[in-house]
Amino acid sequence: MISKPLVFIVSGPSGSGKSTLVQKLLQLPGTMLSVSATTRYPRKTESDGKWYNFVSEAEFQQMIERGEFLEYAQVFGKNWYGTPRRWLDEAMAQQKDLVLEIDVQGALQVKKTLPDAIAIFVLAPSREDIERRIRDRGQDSEDEIRRRLERARQEMLTYSKYDYAVINDDLDRAGAEVQAIAIASRCRVAQREHRIHEILKSFGG
User: Fold this and answer.
1) Model pLDDT for residues 123-157, shown as the tens digit of each residue
2) In 52-141, which residue ranges form alpha helices assigned H by DSSP?
3) How far apart, in Å, are the Cα atoms of 162 and each of 4, 65, 104, 157, 183?
4) If DSSP states are collapsed to H, E and C, what string results for 163-183?
5) pLDDT higher than threshold 90 for residue 202
């Protein structure tokens, strides 16, 4: 019997550096990214199908009606984001662990559906760091920055719902930590049981 691929959820406030840490996870062999669907317009640096599939609101609503999402939510009362279920099937077919970069609301939905999913919460070291990182992007108005900072505060109150917390004050160390979480999770007895049985069989047991 082949073990089921693991599902890693990575979330955290805007400006926490979670996307960079997701890339660190994806450097591990045997991992793949779940590409979210969203109704927002792509930024200049984004291309369809890499981190997001950009769809119309009508398309998104049709996907909801067809039950195609593992989780979905509307953010800031504007754009919709969702994780298509098909990525779970794809991970199973490829026997790869699946990495989801989703917000807190989505993470809690996934944990209800997939309680064995491993949830990692990424934090910046301070409010000032988050504000600086958001401003350095040069993409948001003052109102948007205020909303993101308030949302960050609210999201951090959910930390206890997660399995692991990574404080991203040093990228090399934080990257090593998310990789260590993934490697340790792969070594759990439940994940290695089929291999253990094979080894036992070699003893005639």
Assistant:
1) 999 899 888 888 887 777 888 888 888 988 999 99
2) 57-65, 86-94, 104-113, 127-137
3) 21, 29, 10, 11, 18
4) CEEEECCCHHHHHHHHHHHHH
5) yes
Task: Give the start-to-end residue ranges of the domains of the chain.
Answer: 7-34+95-202
Does this model's pTM top 0.85? My answer is yes
What superfamily in CATH does domain 7-34+95-202 come from?
P-loop containing nucleotide triphosphate hydrolases (3.40.50.300)
Question: In the chain, what's the furthest Cα-to-Cα distance?
Answer: 69
- pLDDT of 46 > 80? The answer is no
Q: Computed from CA positions of residues 67, 102, 146, 150, in that sequence, does the dihedral angle turn out positive or negative?
A: positive
Give the distance, in angstroms, between the CA of residue 127 and the centroid of all CA atoms in the same chain: 22
The rounded distance, in Å, linking the Cα atoms of 126 and 123 is 8
